[in-house]
Design brief:
alpha/beta, TIM Barrel, Rossmann fold, binds beta-D-glucopyranose, Fn3-like, hydrolase
Length: 760
Amino acid sequence: MNKSIVLIICSLTFFTQNIFSQSLTAKDKRVIDELMGKMTLEEKIGQLNQLDFGMDVTGPAISKDVEQKIKEGKVGSLLNAYTPEVVRKLQDIAVKETRLHIPILFGNDVIHGHQTTFPVPLALSCTWNMPLIERCAQIAAKEASADGLKWTFSPMVDITRDPRWGRVVEGSGEDPYLGSCIAKAMVKGYQGKDLRSDSSIMACVKHFALYGAAEAGRDYNTVDMSRIRMYQYYFPPYKAGVDAGAGSVMTSFNEIDAMPASGNKWLMNDVLRKQWGFKGFIVTDYAAINEMTPHGLGDLKDNVVRAMNAGVDMDMVGEGYLSYLKKLLQGNKITLQQINVACRRILEAKAMLGLLDDPYKYCSEERAAKVNLAPAHRQTARDAAARSCVLLKNDNQLLPLSKGKTIALIGPLADDKKNLSGSWDDYGDWKNAVSVLEGIKNGQGNDVNILYAKGCNLVEDQHTIDVLNESGEGLKKDERSVETMLNEALEQANKADIIVAVLGEAKGMTGEATSRAEIGIPENQKDLLKALVKTGKPVVLVLMNGRPLTLQWENQHVPAILETWFGGLEAGNAIADVLFGKYNPSGKLTQCFPLSLGQIPVYYNYKKTGRPFDDKSLEKYKSRYFDIPNAPLYTFGYGLSYTTFQYSDVRLSTTMPKGNQTLQAAVTITNTGKYAGEETAQLYITDPVASVTRSVKELKGFQKVLLQPGESKEITFDITPEELKFYNEKLAYIWEPGEFIIHIGTNSNEVKSAKVKWMK
Ligand code: BGC
């Protein structure tokens, strides 16, 4: 481990190829023209309709009479239908029993792996490792395509600043630059070089737009935001996904400027199509056109007109298009041209995916059996899970654990497999996962003495259990009493040299519709942790969760904290690798952990105010809380290693760059500790004076470097005016000459800085 990476440089200009727009051949165009010439109005409308086959469901609407509707040519796409058998059976109906034999496009939420589950996306983002993230998407595509899927509703690229929102787990955190790099890597991984290849699937950038900014972190809630904030901080990852060639974009549930995204013409037409040149098709989120009615925008018919006028091509599950487009056309509320455009876009996607040539070639039991859970895939999952871990605290170098000790492994997640993969783990079997207890036994069985106790239930509070079980979590309380479980845990703890407590959220507490108002570890688990700390034995807290948590008490009282997120089916092996030093943790946070709930939203790239705060001063009229600091507990980019890294001052190739010149900013990083380790050096830039207010600093680059103990390496960032650009009051993307501060460091707070004056 720790050996494969020498240097990874992320650059947004790295992936220039737009796969999607290059894949339509002259033959495809001819076939589509011929089809369009033959299609009836009803058949065209059918292509715009996506139904839910019901193998997993995320919303209240479930499609009825799916097979009959396919026969009648009323289905262009299906979700929640997979496995070669199921897909072949449904595709057979479309291809053999409809007049024009147009195949169905099968899509689904392949979010972090298919049968081989990788760490949840928020965890993967903490690797800051683009080749690895791309590889995970590639493996997911390989497995999902063998199971008959040709389209994933991923990447989810919503910027998030509020950890109460449960879907932070599905994204890449708070930063637009890192989020853009990840969006590109994932699109590239899913779609590959050739969308027609057996193992590529089409990507869908979602949820356009601003879904991560739901007020108060409550899912599906209102969003209200200035345009300048949208363009500067929230739009870049969507645009990056589109630039990388994503074949589709999904609308979000929320409103923007008082209009839900699915009916928002400015967003879909002006921004996405005209400004960004998006050529693929737009699908709604689940029944999102229908949901415009409870939003207060009248009946479904009116909202179908809105969606059509916005340029939304496919209606997910709601059947509004199916029910009303013909009538609306007859009433001159929409035009045939609008239906033709949408239908053509969907046929183009099918052509580019190779479905018009061979509707079945992706369904292969043989290939599915070979690729799903392949040893190499599991090995990548293990590597990814280890690299996702973020070491939050490690007093007195308590970690890594040494051999020959007695370890009390305690907690409801210590020998758990069901929660390890987090949300969107529907395709695999949780029984294939490796728990932490198993991981330690696999790796260190002979070297350590392991004592185990569950210690408490994952959740004790009946209301939370009822809510989780309502959505099928199947949580059961242990038959033993709280006291019995605690006593057993304390008995084991008292016999041990060191306690490893594996605690966190149930996987059902994160993901869609899982907003939490309190974001600590559940109270009953905290009681267990307090009792373990009270024993006086050293405690390592291993966290599994899908969002930043409030950890003030834990940070004050527990000497070592390792954030492992939901690491996928190899999590147990990977966590054992990290705990015992086989892998030296290198993950860095991509979203701040608040000190207290009252700070939310808290993020590193906040705007300057007219009353800047100085934490050494008690001055009153400043932008501050008087009871707590402004700073989060753990900031963006933060993460420790078993070794230590020292940064030199920043060296600049010039302090007076001009025009389009490239400025080089270098630092030397030295491994000053005892272990080989990987560091992610981060480049931030401050624009102290501009024509609009700017953030205190913004991430503009990062590089990973592996260093042996005592080794030093120089790393250099090339900076051009591209990195200085921002959206001005006219929403033009420009840079303005003047002074800039270049920061390079180990996280967004601990940096070395140097100034330049950059003139035109
Ligand atoms: C979610 C989407 C998902 C869709 C289909 C919706 O409820 O918001 O992210 O892709 O369901 O499963």
